[in-house]
Amino acid sequence: MSDLQISLLGIGAIVVAGVFAFNRFQERKFRRIADAHFKSNHDDVLLDENAIQEKHSLHIDEIVPMEDEWRIEPKFESPEPVFKHPSEEPVWSSAPAIEPMHEAEPVVTAPVEPKPAAPHHKETAKVPVVDESIAYVATLQAGETIITEDIALLLQQFSALGKPVHWTGLRNQTGVWEEIDPVRPGEYEKIQVSLQLADRKGHVSEAQLDLFCDGIQNIAADLQAFMDCPEKQPALQRAIELDDFCAEVDVLIGLNVLSHNGETLPATKVRAQAEAAGMKLQPDGTFHLMNDDGISLYSLSNHDDILFTAENIKHMTTHGVTFLFDVPRAPGGIHTFNSMVTLAKQVAHTLNGDLVDDNRNKLDEKSIATIKQQLSNIYVKMDARHISAGSQRALSLFS
To answer: Domain 252-397 sits in which CATH superfamily?
Structure first.
């Protein structure tokens, strides 16, 4: 071994020894600091066997805390009912009773109106938006929550049935029935699917009802839900009866204002008369008088084949106009019909036209009185079936 190698080994040994000595010095230094800060005179019961045995020999009954040593339990006074009136529900006060320190003169204060307790959602659940008198209703209830995403595609499944289908759900969070919107997230405990039994196209057929029930059964299988479908034959019989009644009262009354001897009338004057009466031109090419709920009371259309538009009405002419009164859909009854008759007479006078029926027979006061009597008979029949003209039920059936 050369002198250089021996020198390097010696230097390395000296460096290692120096590092070891420095580490020992640092270890002693930090131990002294730790003992000075964390040293305790108490015995460690986890290491002392005698302390462990003594600890385990104690019974629970022997551990008695000193009074007020651990904590003070909160005490609640029994609430006392505060009655506003004998006929009303009591409003319970949760404020604890406070004993006065000394007697004081009574203070007269104005009576405070008690705030009613916030109603619980489950107790105030609304009735589902389903009219069982005109619909066949199936119910789905799953063991787990039904979310909108699970049924979004199923909502479109019944579009080919040819009859209106409505979906309503009982929301988990609120306990309230609501109409299900496929694009709005929702979580439901229960779902109702209703098939309308009749409309202006006729009553639901046995084949349509079978397809509906089969679809509900498939949905229940997909969702692993409990399905409740009523008997189909009573529903079919009810659909036929409902359709027969609707056909009996489904009347559309038309009043025509026609020009003399085939002359033409300026459409701008028609628009002026209609707008002065509060009517507005709608996308269907006719003027409508709407009520505050957006329901059409009656309409005014071109007697010719051309529809009114905002552009062509500026320069077009017509041989006449037609007022239409959809009896079962128009709210207001005879009053609404009288309003239409008055406007039709004004338009006939302004345009120098004739007020006639569909057979071009002039309508005099006697003819109009006959129409009113027929209307009264229809309204009596509709009210007897709890299908008032212009009601939501009537709007659904006569659509």
So the answer is: ZipA, C-terminal FtsZ-binding domain (3.30.1400.10)
Number of other CB atoms surrounding residue 105 within 10 Å: 5
Q: Are 169 and 146 in contact (CB under 8 A)?
A: yes
Domain boundaries, the chain: 135-244, 252-397
Query: Is 177 in contact with 215 (CB distance < 8 Å)?
Result: no
Q: Which residues pair with 225 in a beta bridge?
A: 142
How does pLDDT run across 12-52, given as a tens digit for each residue?
A: 777 677 766 666 665 665 555 445 444 444 444 444 444 43
Q: Do 299 and 287 touch, CB atoms closer than 8 A? A: yes
Backbone angles phi, psi at 148, to 5 degrees: -60, -35
Please tell me the pTM assigned to this model: 0.65
**40-99 per-position pLDDT tens digit:** 444 444 444 444 344 444 333 333 333 433 333 333 343 433 333 333 333 333 333 333
Whole-number Å distance between alpha carbons of 255 and 322:
6
For residue 209, which of 221, 193, 192 has the smallest C-alpha distance? 193
**Nearest-10 Cα torsion for 18, 19, 20, 21:** 50
Amino acid at site 104: A
